[in-house]
Amino acid sequence: MPRRISIDRASKKIKEFKKTVLVFYKRNNRKLPWRTTVNPYHILVSEIMLQQTQVARVVEKYQQFIKKFPTIRALANSSPAAVLRAWQGLGYNRRALFLYKTANIIAQQHKGIVPLQPEVLQKLPGIGAYTAVAIAVFAGQQSGVCIETNIRRVFIHHFFADKKNIADSEILPIIEKTVVGEKNPRRWYWALMDYGASLPKMIQSNPNRKSSQYAKQSKFIGSLRHARGIVLKVLIKNKNTSSLSHLQKELKKRNISPQNSAKAIHALHKEGFINIRNNMIGLR
Question: Is 47 a residue of the active site?
Fold first, then answer.
């Protein structure tokens, strides 16, 4: 009997929690362009863009990108340089190359159709556990279980108020309970994300600080990530090519250390962004 009471209480709490989130969503939902489609390719593009980038910055770029590359085959038939040019302003340029490689794999191995099985999606470049399930949910209305920063924030606030160092493995079973039987998983996850995005303003704190996943972002200026971005911007500005000496001068102007300059160029070459030949560097 005590176990029955515990289950009933948990069920009641889940029900009240869902009501709170959905009422908020009904009044405050964000009108975002990728929420008006179930096109798997469009969802794929939006999810890759939204990795580590704020929604406001993605909206305009997403629409421009879809206009330039309207289909998975159009993206696959372009070039890394063209994709990088379209990606400028979003940061984390590695995602652009991953998306280009993924488009080629889908065009060649899946007849140009984005698969909706999370286990298949997760094998593609740049697609992790969350992104794989998100594509299946938003394009296929599947009842997958996934977690990202806004979702994590919501569940920590409502279910782990007195706990610290909370692992995702503790949160995921509760998320699953809210998804099981949900007739509209797309709407439910949108509601969680919108509620989570607004939560810090409502409670004047960030519950994610209690997550074991939480880490403060390192300084950007002068960093290796900063150096990588400069290299790509210089190459795009110079019609995809530059001498090594010119590139080094541009990096020095922006206070990038010689060590980070060398590391950035080496990493971009190793990852397939650039070619190096006779002291000339070019976008692939």
Answer: yes
